[in-house]
Structure formats: structure tokens, C-alpha cells
Amino acid sequence: MKNAVYLQSGGPTAVINSSFYGVIKAYQENQGIDVLYGSRFGLQGLIEDNLIEINKEKDYSSLTKIPGAILGSARLRLKDEFDPLLDQILEVVKKHDIHYIYCNGGNDSMDTGDKLTKFFKRVNYPCTVVGICKTIDNDLCENDFSPGFASAVNYIVKSTMEIALDLKAYKKGRVTIVETMGRDAGWLAASSSLANRYNLGPDLIYVPECAFKKEEFLEDIKRIYQEKGKVFIVVSEALKDENGEYLFADTNNLDSFGHIQLGSISMKLCDLVKKELGINTRYIEYNLMQRCASHIASQNDITWAYSCGYNAVKFSLENKVGVVSIKKKEEVTYQLVPFEKVANHVRHMPRNYMNEIGNFVSQKGEEYFKTFIDDSFKIDIPEEFR
Amino acid sequence: MKNAVYLQSGGPTAVINSSFYGVIKAYQENQGIDVLYGSRFGLQGLIEDNLIEINKEKDYSSLTKIPGAILGSARLRLKDEFDPLLDQILEVVKKHDIHYIYCNGGNDSMDTGDKLTKFFKRVNYPCTVVGICKTIDNDLCENDFSPGFASAVNYIVKSTMEIALDLKAYKKGRVTIVETMGRDAGWLAASSSLANRYNLGPDLIYVPECAFKKEEFLEDIKRIYQEKGKVFIVVSEALKDENGEYLFADTNNLDSFGHIQLGSISMKLCDLVKKELGINTRYIEYNLMQRCASHIASQNDITWAYSCGYNAVKFSLENKVGVVSIKKKEEVTYQLVPFEKVANHVRHMPRNYMNEIGNFVSQKGEEYFKTFIDDSFKIDIPEEFR
Q1: Is B242 helix (H, G, I), strand (E, B) or coil?
Q2: Model-level pTM?
Q3: Residue of A307, A292, A269 lying closest to A175 (CA atoms)
């Protein structure tokens, strides 16, 4: 018997279950794996022997329409390749004759894949571990973009355009600050610039790759408010000042991976604007919706996520270890790269994707984001109402 | 010459422009109106002579896909039927030979329609005013539901289900509190109960029609958290205590209609839960998205909004004055009711649409909300992952 297990970890996306479906389809279509299991709650299921057997005949295609991590996720981190939890995992893996493990997650999960690989090598247990990327943040190294990102872009661009139309209702408006996720990378906030192709985008965009200067921020707002009577801004959840320190962050509040808990920056910036400029404000957080709005998921993203899962199984059957990464030249291809190249690194947005002063996306950045334009973005406003 | 003007006021919805399209279509298909104008920024355009001529031949159907108030809205209120602004309006109306006015808005706008009607009668100028309802809040009297509501329900139910799937990812979760709009009526928050038909709804729902009791709220949370390890709650933006006072409201902060500014109640309730129970929390506001997400607008809602606009013109050509209201028995019909019956009143959700303790929707309430079920809500989760 040669069995396999698939597990999900980190924050869910609108398409991580499409990667799961890709794994299932490859299992169903290929020889080489006798039983495929899904692990409940990531690594936890592998530790506690909480596995679900996947039916080799059944149609699981509805998974491509379901957001969240359907098997359950966990934010469990292995200390190192000597972590005692690994002995528990070995027991479960041996019990079920598991020789292939697919880890679907972000850079923390690729770190897990790396440690699992080193551990199995050390204890001389034959097990091929392949990583499958997912993150809406688009911050995984060795990937031209990450599965999950394009769907979040879809949600962000469409919502930004719809909000822009809503804000047009009033002659004299407020300063509206919209907050995206993205952690230390500005990809998500910057993607909102796609809305500007339809004249329905923000006036200003701030990302962590550009040092946030309070005075310039307030000057930008004052100038645009004087001109237009309202200002529409998109910001990343994690802005940093000139010393690289998080704006308004609570350094006492860390998650189980030791990351600072982010959020509510739009509200705090609104407070700043109200206090310093005396202008009415409104903050909007795209919150969980940006990562789970499968009703508006990108069809391309579903295909890419699916293909990452499918290729992970193919690579594993060739006994190749590593992370399936997405490369895009003319076509999208799926390549295997070493775990260490993805694990624990952050792929920041290049600084020149933003303009020099750092308050909007540059032409170079627009070039990049064009990949994610969707026909459904088009909006046909009769010209007398533009 | 007998001309007409259409104006939008109050907060935008995903389908107010569909009502505009209904007015345009009736204008294009019927005799009786020579020129139809759109007033820029509601009453403001009528005061300042800022009108757009609508083309009698052109296809304006794209308006049904555009959220926001495309002509611009205003939150201007006429003091009474002797307001000096009315003399300015009379001048503009006479100048353009306007004898039909269509006011598209909420209960404040129906008040405007009432004052306009009384004023024109007093000065003996022949002008027929017809009101067209719109509000996502569903709180307009004499309507079984309001144009705009069903699309907001679509957004709320789908997002609630998607968030529920996202929250399933972690075994041990937090207390998640989602906030809907709705002002003094709980319709929007209560509509989230539709998600429970798919087992993806909230555990608790709180609305302004049920007095909020802090102790019971905390007890509800404690009980469910002990049982499930997480709690999912939907609340209206305006909860009231047993004395009828707004929770956490800032009574110094009023809008131009004298209404208290609401918002951020989910954040404040999260603070309360953290402080009193020491449980991690997350607040989510559906914010402007719930009223402008035209990408997920209800097709029925578009039809209803369109028909209200269309019928407004038909009634006016019969010289009938009043508000087009929606009645639903087996079929949806459009009837004219007097302005005073809609103006300035609030249609609360009946108390028996909630259960006795007031923390969830009752069977009676579910009966009502069934009208708004959309086939697209269906989600097919393979049974081994439920």
C-alpha cells in the first residue's frame, strides 16, 4: 500500500478547496496512490489520527465553489525537525502507510513541509512531501502570483468600483479609507488601482513597501479634498513609518506564529484625519470577505489553484520534493522549487510598482496587475452621467 | 409642452438606477411627456437648474447594472410647504414647463414629495408629484418590501454563508460579530437567518425591535462558546436597551436630517465581550458594500425597482398623486398610497418575527424572508466535509 494525505493550513482563501479538488482529481486519474486521506485541521489531524478517506470514484467538483478550508486548518508550527510532535506524526503516517504528503498553505506551511522532509530523511522513512501554495496576500517567493490572489483582486476591484459609484452620489463627500489585507506586502491594496481603468478607482493608495509619512499623507488628502470635495483612499493593513515600524500596531498582541496582529488601520487613519484636518471620514474594511467571497472568485484563479494541486500529485509520484510554484511568461507553468526558497520568506511588491512619492501605483505596477483584469469588471455608464 | 423631472435622494442602493430606467422606459414608450429631465443631486438640481435631458430614443438599460445614485443624491430637507427654497424650485419648474415630478428616495424623500404637492396646490401650479420608494432598510410603511432590500439581502446572506465557511477552518475560533445597516429596523440583520437553511448562518441575531440586555447577550455567548468553541453573531447597527436608548450612540453627532449617526456597534460589542469574557473577537461591518454590491444584485429586486419607476410615470399621466408602493399577495402589485402614509414613518419588523427571548428569528420571521431566497444561495458541500 502506498497512501497519501493532503492537509490545509494558514488562513483560508476562496480557492484553496480548488487545489484540494486538483489533488483529488490527480489521485482519481493516476495510478500510484492507493488511498488518499484528507487531514482534519491541518497538521493536527496528522498528529491526532483524524483523517477522512477520499472516495476514488466520487465527483468532488463542488469543492471549486466552496470558500474556506473545507478540511479545517491549523496555525500549528513545528519548532524544528526534532519537534516531539514529529514522532506522533510518524506513528500515524506509518499506521496508514502514508508515503506522500501534500501541504497546502502559505510560507509558514512551506516551513512545515521543509521540517517534515528533513525529519523523514533523518529517521529514514520514505515519504515525499510536496507543498501547494495558497495565499490571498501574493507574498510567496518563487511564484509570479499565488493561488487565491486573483479572487481577492476580483473582490477588491469590484467592491472598490461599486463603492466609488456609491460615493459619487453626494457632491460634497468625506474622506473614505478602505483597508485591504496583505500583511507586509502591498499587492492587494495596490491591485485596487485596476478600478482606475474605469475611472472608478481610489485617489490614493498606501502600501507597506513605501514609508508612510504622516505629513505627506495629510497634505495629499488636503489637496484632493480642496479640488474634489471628497477623497477615496485604499490602504494596506500594515503600513510602516520611515523607521520600518508598524503604524498603530499593538506589539503586545502576537499570533501563534509570532506575527503582530494587524487590522483597524483604516479606522485609526480616519481618526487622524478627523483630528488633524477636521474632515468627516468613513472607514471600510474588506475584512474576511476579500478572502472568502467565492461568489465572485476568479475563474483563472480556480484553474491555477486546481493545477497546483494536480501537479503536486504528479511531482510526488515522480518522487520529487518541493513546492509547486506558478511561473507566468506567455503561458502559466507549474514548477517545483525547494521548500527553503519559499518557507518563511516574504515576496514584497517591487518598490517601482508604486510611483516615486509612494501614494499610487506606477505604470510598471499597472503592467503587472493587468494579468488579473476580468471582463466582468467592465461597467457601461451612459456618457451624460459620467 | 408638458415636461417631467426625475430626482434621486437619500442613501444609494444597488437598484435605484433600475427605478430610473423604469421611469425612462415609461417615458420612451408612452405619450404625454415631451421631455424628461434628470435632476443632478436631488432637490439641489431643481433649485439650481441643474438638469440633464434624457434622450427619448437611447438605450439606457445599462443603468440596471450600476449601483449608487447615478444622477447624484442630496440630503436636503424642506422645512415645510412655505420653505423659500420652494419659490426657487417653482421658477425652475416653470422655466422648463415641468408638470410631473418623480421623487425616488426613502421616507425623508416622501416627506419632500408631500411638501412639494402641498406647495404646488397652494400656488395653484399644475404639477403631479409621484414618489418612488427605495431603501435597503426595508423600513418604508405601506410596502410589503422596498426596492433595494432584496439585493442587500443577497449580499448579506451570501457573505454570511461565505464567512461561516471561512470560520469553520479553525477548530477553536473566536466570537465574530457582523454588523448590518438598517437603522431602527432589524430587517437586514434578521435576513441573515436565511443562511441557516444551509447550516451556514449565525448562532445569534440581535435587532433594535428587541430590547438588548447586556447580561443575556453575554450569557448567550458564554453558552455557545462553551459548546462550539466559537460564536457567530449578526447585529443591527442600532440596538436599543430596555429604556429604548441607543447602545453606544453618540447623541452629539447628528446628520442633516437630525438622525443619530450610527455605526461601529460590532466593534464596541467586541470590546465588551473581550473585557467581560476574555474571549478573542473579530468584528466585521458589511458597510457600504451591502447597499452597492450590484455584482450580486437580486434579479427580482431589479424588476421590482424598475416597475416602481415605470408605474410612477403611468400614475402621473393619470394625474394621480402619491407613492408607488409594493404589495405582495400571490403576485407583486404596485399601488398608489398617500405621501403622508409613508413620509417620516418607520416600518419596524414585527416583534413576533423574532423568537421570544429576542436572540434569533422566529418561524414567523422565516416565513417572511423566504420571499428573498435565491437559487444562487445553494451550496453543495460533500457530506464527509459537513
Answers
A1: coil
A2: 0.97
A3: A269
- Count of all residues that appear for chain A in the document: 386
A259 pLDDT band, cuts 50/70/90, is: confident
Q: Across the interface, do B74 and A41 touch by the CB < 8 Å criterion?
A: no
> What is the DSSP secondary structure assignment for residue A144, as one 8-state letter?
S
Mean per-residue pLDDT for A314-333? 97
Distance, in Å, from the CA atom of A60 to the CA atom of A25, rounded to the nearest integer, reads 8
ipTM: 0.96
* Chain A residue whose CA is closest to B384: A52
Q: To the nearest whole number, what is the mean pLDDT of chain A?
A: 96
Helix spans in chain A (H): 16-29, 43-47, 85-95, 107-122, 149-167, 187-191, 214-228, 265-277, 289-292, 299-317, 339-342, 363-369
- CA separation for the pair B209, B81 (Å, rounded): 33
Sort out which chain B residues have CB atoms less than 8 A from A8's CB and list them.
169
What is the rounded CA–CA span in Å between residue A12 and residue A106?
10
CA-nearest of B130, B193, B118 to B160 is B193
CA distance readout (Å), B368 to B308, B365, B373, B385: 21, 5, 10, 31
Banded pLDDT at A260 (limits 50, 70, 90): confident
Type of residue numbered A354: M
Q: Which residues of A are part of the catalytic machinery?
A: 137
Query: Is B137 labeled as catalytic in the residue annotation?
Result: yes
Taking Cα atoms as reference points, which of B1, B145, B112, B107 lies closest to residue B46? B112
SS3 label, residue B207: coil
Q: Which residue of A has its CA nearest to B166?
A: A68
Grid cell, residue A277, equals 484636518
From the list B104, B352, B293, the residue with the least C-alpha distance to A154 is B293
CB contact under 8 A, B67 and A289: no
Q: Write the CB contacts of A275 (distance below 8 Å, at least 6 apart in sequence).
A: none
CB pairs under 8 A between A and B: 149
Residue B15 has pLDDT above 80, yes or no: yes
d(CA B288, CA B291): 6
Contact residues on chain B for A72, CB-CB shorter than 8 A = 168-171
Contacts of B380 in chain A (CB under 8 A): 62, 65
Tell if the CB–CB gap between A169 and B62 is shorter than 8 Å: no
The DSSP symbol for A370 reads: G
* Section A123-147 average pLDDT: 97
Q: Angle B16-29/B299-317 helices, nearest 10 degrees?
A: 40
How close is the nearest chain B Cα to the Cα of A360, in Å?
23
Residues of chain A with pLDDT > 90, as a percent, come to 92
Beta bridge partners of B240: B246
Cα(B175)–Cα(B230) distance, integer angstroms: 6
Of A52, A69, A381, the CB nearest to B66: A381
- Tell whether A65 lies on the interface with B, counting CB pairs under 8 A: yes
Task: Provide the pairing of β-strand B175-180 with B281-285.
Answer: parallel
Beta strand pairing call for A231-236 and A175-180? parallel
pLDDT digits (tens, 9 = 90+) for A338-379: 999 999 899 999 999 999 999 999 999 999 999 999 888 999
Q: Which residues of B are less than 8 Å from A285 in CB distance?
A: 284-285, 287
**Positive or negative torsion for Cα B68, B69, B74, B77:** negative
CA distance B351 to chain A (A): 31
Give the bridge partners for A47, in sequence order. none
pLDDT exceeds 90 at position B301: yes
Q: Are the Cβ atoms of A170 and B75 closer than 8 angstroms?
A: yes
User: Any chain B CB within 8 A of the CB of A291?
Assistant: yes
B281 pLDDT exceeds 80? Answer: yes
Helix, strand, or coil (residue A252): coil
pLDDT at B252 over 90: no
Is A63 within 8 Å of B382 when comparing Cβ atoms? yes
CA A13, distance to chain mean position in Å, is 7
Q: Nine-digit cell at A194?
A: 485596476
Q: What strands, in cross-sheet order, belong to the sheet with B281-285?
A: B204-206, B231-236, B175-180, B281-285
Count of CA atoms in the C-beta half-sphere (13 A) of B280: 9
